[in-house]
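Long-time lurker. I teach an intro course on protein structure, and each term I like to show students one example going from raw sequence to a predicted 3D structure in C-alpha cell notation. This year I'd like something fresh instead of my usual example. Would anyone be willing to generate the C-alpha cells for the chain below so I can use it in lecture? Attribution to the forum is fine with me.
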Amino acid sequence: MTAVGAPAERREGREKVTGTARYAAEQPLPGRLFARPVPATIVRGRVTDVDAAAALALPGVVTVLTHRNAPRLAAPDDATLAVLQSPEVPNRGWFVALVVADSPEAARAGAAAVRVTCAEETYDVTLSATHRQAYVPEKVAGTYPGARELGDPDGAFADADVRVDVGYRVPPLHNHPMEPHASTAHWDGERLTVYTSSQGTTAVRAALGTMFGLANERITVLAEHVGGGFGSKGTPRPDVVLAAMAAWHTGRPVTVVLPRRVLPTSVGHRASTLHRLRLGADSEGRLTSLAHEVTTYTSRIKEYVEYAGIPARVMYAAPNLRSRHHVVRLDVPTPSWMRAPGEAPGMYALESAMDELAEALGMDPVEVRVRNEPDTEPDSGKPFSSRHLVECLREGARRFGWSDRDPRPRTRSAGPLLLGTGVAAATYPVQVYPSKAAVRALPDGSFLVEVNAADIGTGARTVLAQVAADALGVPLERVRIRVGNSDLPAAPLAGGSSGTASWGWAVHEACVRLAAQLAERQGPLPEQGLEVHADTEGAADAESPFARHAFGAHFAEVSVDTVTGEVRVRRLLGVYAAGRILNPRTARSQFVGGMTMGLGMALTEGSTLDAAFGDFTESDLAAYHVPAHADVPDIEAHWIDEDDPHLNPLGGKGIGEIGIVGTAAAVGNAVHHATGVRFRELPLTPDRVLTGLLEPPRHPTRHPIPTG
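-- Reply from a regular --
Happy to contribute to a lecture. Here you go:
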C-alpha cells in the first residue's frame, strides 16, 4: 500500500487531545500583557471623546490606546485593519479603544470602564431586493463577472411549457470557530514576532509589513495550530494589528483575544442574500431558461460580494441563461468569506428551485437533474476535466433507498410526525495556487519537508507527509513536516478548498527532484543534509483548457412535528466526485464536517441585523445555534473513484467545502416532501415551520423575495 490513499492518523492528534498543542493565545512569554478592545455602540459617525480615567485607575491596567495616542500606521490594503487610526466609525462594533493590562480579567474590567462619546450620523442597514442604490459589480470574488447572460432568458421563460418563478432568503451567517481570533505579538528591537490564529501567515506578514513599514525578513508570523476558521481567518483581522500595535507601544509582549460577542462585527460574516430564480422547461423536463438574480450587501469601506449566482453558470444545460449579482453598500460590518462562499447560499436557492420545477413537472427530482446534465460548462463552453454528478446522484439514490420513496408530499407519518426525504446536487470549483516548498534529506535517513501551509484542523500535516513519502519512495514514518511559519517557503492560505492541491503540488515536485538526486548520488550525505526547493508558479496558475469542479449529491430524511414545528434530520447521506481521495480518514471527516455545517444552515443558524442598532442580535453561541452530535443520528459520506489527469500531480480536488453546499437544500426539500409546504427562508426554525403549517398553501409564482 502506498502512503497516499491510506487512512493515516492525524500527526498532531495526540498533541491536541493531551493539551500540549499551543495556540496563539497560549504563548508564555515573559512580561506578557493582555489587551481587550472597546467596540463602538453607534452605527455610523465619529468619536468625539474617550474618557479612560476610570479604566486607568483600575488595578492592573497599564494603558488605553485610542486614535489619539495609538502608533500611526500606513494605510492597509484592507480598510478593516485601519483600527485606532482615525475618529471615524464606519459600523457598529468598530474598535475605538484598546485596554492593555497585566491580566485578561483586568483588561476586561478596564474595557468596561472606558467611556466613549460619539456623534452619530444617519445610516442605512436594511437590505431589500428593490433598494435604489443597488448596483451590479464589475467583478465578484475578484475573478468572475458580476453578470453573465446567454441567449434570451426572458423570452425563453415566457415561452416555456412549465415555469417556476420563486424567491428565497438566506440570513446573515457567522463563522464562530472554536478558537476565537487571537494574536500574541512581541518586538525585539525592530523585529516583530507574532503568534496568530490564521489560515495563512504569509498574508498576515505582508499586511503587517505594509502597515508597520517593515521588510518581510523582519517579521515572523506563526500559526502552528489553528482551532478552526471557516474563512474568517483567511485574511488578517484586527486582533493581529492591535496586538502588534500594543506591543510596540508598551515594549512588552501583548495578547489580544477577541471576545466571541464581537466576532460577528469584527472578523467578517456571510452577508444575507436574496434570490430570485426563474426556471423555464419544456414538457420533457429540459430547461429552456435559467435566471438567477442575487441581491446582497457590502460595507461602505470595502466591497465584498457573496457571489451566490456563480453555480447557475456551472450546473445545468440551459441554452438561455442569466446569472446576475446586485450589491447595496450599507452601514454594516464588512462581510467576508465563510465556508463555501457563494456556492453555499447559491446552491441552496438553485437546488430548491430545481425541486420546485420537478414538482411542477410531476417528475422525480433526481431525474430532472440527470436530464439537464450539460456536455460542457454552460458559461465558458469549456469541457469538464471530469464530471460525475450523475454517478453521484445514482449511487446516492441507491444507498439512500430513493426508489422506495412515494413522491407525493405528506404521505408518511408517525403519530404527530410528518416524514419526508429530499435530494440536492452540489458543486465546488477546483482552485490551485502557486506554492513553494523545500525538502531535506538528513544523514539519519529521515526527511524534513517545509512549506508554509496552515493546518486549520483539516489534517494538512498528515496528507502532505503522505504525498512526500510516496514521491520519495520511503515509509511515512521517515517524513517530518513543518508548517505554519512565515519563515518557511511561501505558500497560499488554507481557503477555497485549495490547500492540499496547492501545497501538495510543490511538495511533490521538491520530493521528486530530491529523489532523483539521491538516486544518482554516491557516498554519505553531508552533515547538514541535502536540500531541494520547488516553486509551482507558472504551472499551478496556468490557464486550463478545462472547467474543473468537484460534484456531489446530498440526500436527507426528516421528521416534522406538527405540534411544535420542530424539524429533526434522521439521515444525511452524501456521495462525492472529488478526484483522488488522498486520505480516506481525514477526507470523511471533512465531508461530514461540511454536511453538519449545512445542517446548521438549514435548521438552526441565522442572524438578524437589527435595523435600529445596526448590530447582530444573535452574536454568541447562546443565541446563534450550531448543530450538536444529537442533531443528526445518522450521517454518511461516500465517494466514487474519479481519475482526473487535468488537475495537478496528485489528481485531487478540494473537499473541505463541497459537503456544506447541497445539504441545506436537501433538508429543505425533504421538509417540503414531509409537509407539502414550501419554506423559502432559512433557517427552518420551529416558529417558522409551525406558522407555515397553519397557513393555506400559495402558488410559487406569488412568492416575492423576502426583505432582510
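Some talking points for your students: The radius of gyration is 26 Å. The longest strand covers residues 417-429.
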